[in-house]
Amino acid sequence: MEDKASTRDQIMAGARRMFAEKGFRASMRDIAQAAGISTTSLIFWYFPDKEALWSAVIQEASPLEQVQHVFDGLPPGTDPASLVSRLVSVYFDVYGDPDNRRILFQMLSHSSQDSVRDVLRRQLTRVMEQEMADWVRRGQQIQAFRQDVPADFLAQAVLGILFALVTRWHVEGHLPWDQEDVIRHVNRLLNDR
Hints:
Arc Repressor Mutant, subunit A, 10 helices
């Protein structure tokens, strides 16, 4: 018998593929088949319903979750200026996968669902009001970042730029800038130099 983690991972992988393709319209049968499991009842061992599985998938694919992973992995005392390259790198890694881009836009097209709004609201509060604005404030305190723009606005601008890049990547299938270009331009925005 497979261990629970690998079965759950298998279900999540199948759900990612099906939700990327069909959005919330994907059936539990579609997901089971994509996951390589013989019955939908096994899915319900791990997730109480399709909405819970959808929430788990969108939470993983959310841009705000990617930012949170970066903050969670930062060693204490990390220089605020070095965070830009970590953020951009994670975005390139995650959204280099077309399925993750499709899930993101499926998620946004279903943002009227309470489950999607709840996930995004929790992530937005945690990331924007706590992590990102504090990071910019620390950068401003040590004069690594520009002082003429409020910290929460600069934080929002960085997230907005990264989201806009994912949008362009999704629509056009490529980006006109590589990872190093993006890092350089975002740093220039933050430093005003």
